[in-house]
Amino acid sequence: MTTLETTTGLEQQHVSQAAGAGQSRLPKFRLKRISFGLLLAWLIIGTALLWAVAPGLFTGYNPVEGLPGGQLKAPSALHLLGTDSLGRDLFARIVYGSVHSLSGAVAAVAVGLLAGTSLGLVAGSTGGRIDAVIMRFVDVLLAIPTLLLSLSIIILLGFGTINAAIAVGATSIAGFARLTRSEVVRVRRAEYVEAAFGSGGTFWNVLRRHILPNSLNSVIAYTAVQFGWAILQLSTLGFLGYGAPPPTPEWGLLIAEGRNYLATAWWLTAAPGFVVVAVVLSANRISQSIGRTR
Amino acid sequence: MTNSNQSVLEVRNLSISYGDGDRRNGVVHDVSFSVAAGEVVALVGESGSGKTTTAQSVLGLLAGSGRVDAGSILLNGEDISRWNEKRLRGIRGPVVSLIPQDPSNSLNPVLAVGTQVREILEIHGRLSRKEADRRVIELLTHVGLPEPELRARQYPHELSGGMKQRVLIAIAIALKPALIIADEPTSALDVTVQRRILDLIDDLRREHGTSLLLVTHDLGIAADRSDRLVVLQNGRIQEEGPTPAVLAAPKSAYTRKLLSDAPSLAVKTNRPALDLSKPELVTVTGLTIDFDLPGRQRFRAVDGVSFSVPQGSTHAIVGESGSGKTTTIRAISGFQKASGGGIRIGETDVASLTSGTLRPFRRKVQLVYQNPWGSLDPKQTIFSIVEEPLLNFDPLPKPERASRVEAIIERVGLPTSVLSRLPHALSGGQRQRVAIARALVLEPEVVVLDEAVSALDVTVQAQILSLLGELQRDLGLTYLFVSHDLAVVRQIADTVSVLHNGRQVDYGPVEQIFERPTSDYTRELIEAVPGRKFPHHLHIAAQAAGQVS
Predict the structure, then answer these.
(1) What membrane topology is given (chain B) (predicted)?
(2) Contacts of A6 in chain B (CB under 8 A)
(3) Which one of A240, A265, B169, B266 is separated from B479 by 20 to 30 angstroms, measured CA to CA?
(4) Do A26 and B21 touch (CB under 8 A)?
């Protein structure tokens, strides 16, 4: 540290000492402050992903078949989170349920991202009448309450994990479309886009080379938020009985099943609830970091 | 030098750095100067020279990570460099005030301007509402706003750039401070407005005996308006002294360079006489462009503009903002449909272009934009930016594309190592060279330069102008050069059109326009060019000395 090299007078010395102390402490402190929450978020998402990929590594119990005589056991060394009313290990059900919730969320976000971004891109880059028609359609989508929209779609398509994912994805189309359109409109006015047209670029070339890459920044950050939100929505649908049918260990369904024993076995609702909250918060935290670094 | 008792501002051995942690970047090094009561001191330098940082430190307004590392700033004899925010607030306004650079960003868009002027009176004074309102009108009248009662109720978007700057000046002088800091007060304004604003600042200053610290990159303005000059480069003082003495006999090489680069001070270079045997490449006849306004109204942006440009020459289109000059060249480059009149480029009639024939036409006419920060895609490397026009037309094999890109990048004076970089890693001048390379890679016949050097520092501007001249000679290019800066036009143009409110008020060879302007408006423009006080005969001697040394 070269903190005391240019010191004239007492006051000056004081200032640079203070600054010097700050300098030596600052990097460590910053590392901690910036990455701790983010690290935890990645850790949680990473664990959830591992659960989805290789559930067998984390638990030896079967998630759908109960142990006879082991109903509604409190958490113990044998059953980390206890057992449910049919004697199934809750921790095993949460671990095996991860693949349903995560793949459902990925599918839902993919539906919203693809449909919403395409609509927004077309609306923003063509403008005029097409823009007006698309955006009014988006307004209609926004006008319907999300849960009502999801439920209607599920009733039309039928029950199941994939259908629930499509239903959740459909509700996020409007958000993606509006965000993409506003970004595209901003980028379209940029001089480099006009310059690209000016050097002989065709509409699709300019769209692909300039407009799309430059408008996707905030869309990517938004995707991560939507991921957490989709898990929440899927759990809601599962809780209401519109998601995967039992005995699928879907997180929302787990919460719903445990609800009857809230007074005697609160951990049956609390544990899956906590997992959902942790994963959703982590997804939000990661999305925030994407938004900041870009 | 003035005694510290008399000087309003005295900066001693000031050093400022930016950054955090161990990585601090020194921006101002050991700068000392003083401003006596009633004196105008100009801080001159290119961007990055630390002139704005120095000015900000006097107000205690250093941006986030900035810090005064050493030295002192004495304002009326008191060192304010270690003051906290609360004490500084007490002096901002009554003792020292700021006229900011960009009037369009410096006023709150959701408050009436009268309210914004009243704000400073309310913060510092205990005036009653009625009294304050009266004072606001007084101030607005004082800075020469017509119909001050009406203006006070208007919002910033209802005022022109010049009017907004007048409002900001009203705020700056409201509490009769001892020192006003003007940070590039007119660089965002047209030349004629610029002159009026500077005159106003001068008058007000004289009236109240206020000192002025004028921060500018334009040596012409500094020459006209200041008593003393402080020339900064890379955060160090290169030269300091009374303005006439510094200009007449600059001691440092950097000052000499600034002098020779400033277009308004440069000795006019004689361009080789126009070769009249060359065929005319661009012909514009009676060009008229209307815009539809809401409510079935039409606005005529360009009204009967005609000129012709021989191949290999430069035609300059001059005018203030709103004069229709940009609309004219957008029509010429096929971005805007003309409502009437004709544009011919070579054999092509631009009005007859369809979406199919427009693309081949783009090969012949290329545009270079004003702002090199906005005209390059921030996500593409320099190589892809320059390569892109080639991809749009007949497909070339990859190695040939690469060699053409490299050749053109070298042609505009950049090292080939920039090709793998992104635009943000380049300086403004380098970016503008990239933009020129992109325009030239298709080997166009006509290059349209829309204020292509206006956003650059004088030194960089001079370099780009000489590059443009060189390229024109070597490649036989025809330029359409749009500018509001007559001094630059005089250096580069062969023929000139002067536009005013969409009408062409003057047209002819550059010498004729400057020596025998036919319209009052052109005369006003020429008179507004700063640097008129500058002793040109001395300058020639200085330049000669500079070349010898």
Answers:
(1) Peripheral membrane protein
(2) 15, 69-70
(3) B266
(4) yes
| Smallest CA–CA distance from A202 into chain B, residue | B392
Q: What is the pTM of this model?
A: 0.74
Residue B21 pLDDT greater than 80, yes or no: no
Residue of A nearest to B24 (CA): A23
Burial of B403 (0-12, 13-18, 19+ CB in 10 A): exposed
Domain that holds residue A270: 78-293
Within 8 A of A200 by CB-CB distance, chain B residues are 359-360, 362-363, 389, 392-393, 442
* Contact of B282 with B332, CB cutoff 8 Å: yes
pLDDT at B394: 75
| Bigger pLDDT: A92 vs A290 | A92
B375 → closest Cβ in A23, A195, A197: A195
Return d(Cα B363, Cα B443) in angstroms, integer. 7
User: Would you give the distance in Å from CA A227 to the centre of its chain?
Assistant: 2
Number of separate domains in chain A: 1
Per the CB < 8 A criterion, the answer to whether B309 and B480 are in contact is yes
| Closest chain B residue to A212, measured at CA | B379
Residue A86 located in a structural domain: yes
Specify the pLDDT at position A23. Answer: 40
pLDDT tens-digit series, residues A74-84? 777 777 787 77
Residues of B in Cβ contact (< 8 Å) with A198 = 333, 335, 362, 366-367
A228 contacts A172 by C-beta, under 8 angstroms: no
Contact B379 A213 (CB under 8 A): yes
C-alpha B263: how far from its chain's center?
12
pLDDT tens-digit series, residues B503-517: 888 898 888 888 888
Q: Average per-residue pLDDT in chain B? A: 83
CATH architecture of B280-375+446-529: 3-Layer(aba) Sandwich (3.40)
Rounded Cα gap, residues A260 and A245, in angstroms: 18
Whether A121 is in a domain gets the answer yes
**H or E, element range at B182:** strand B179-183
Report yes or no on A98 lying in a domain. Answer: yes
In 3D, which of B435, B287, B463 has the Cα closest to residue B369? B435
Question: Among all residues of chain A, which has the CA nearest to that of B423?
Answer: A192
Q: Are B282 and B480 in contact (CB under 8 A)?
A: yes
* Residue spans per domain, chain B: 280-375+446-529
Q: Residue B232 is encoded by which pair of tokens?
A: 């900064």
pLDDT, tens digit, for every residue of B474-504? 888 899 999 888 888 888 888 899 988 888 8
Assign residue A221 the CATH number of its domain: 1.10.3720.10
* H or E element in which residue A128 lies: helix A128-143
Q: Residues B155, B160, B161, B163: what is their CA dihedral angle, to the nearest 10 degrees? A: -80
Tens of pLDDT along B430-458?
Answer: 888 899 999 888 888 899 998 888 777 77
Residue A20 confidence class, pLDDT cut points 50, 70, 90 = very low
Phi, psi of B160 (to 5 degrees): -80, 170
The continuous run of DSSP H or E covering B483 comes out as: strand B478-483
Task: State residue B276's pLDDT score.
Answer: 63
Residue carrying the six token digits 């204020």: B451
Write down the ipTM of this complex: 0.71
Residue B94: cis peptide before it, omega within 30 degrees of 0: no
User: In this predicted model, what pLDDT tens digit does every residue of B317-362 receive, in sequence order?
Assistant: 988 877 888 888 888 888 888 888 888 888 888 878 877 788 888 8
Q: What span, in angstroms and rounded, lies between the C-alpha atoms of B479 and A248?
A: 72
Burial of B334 (0-12, 13-18, 19+ CB in 10 A): buried
In-domain check, residue A170: yes
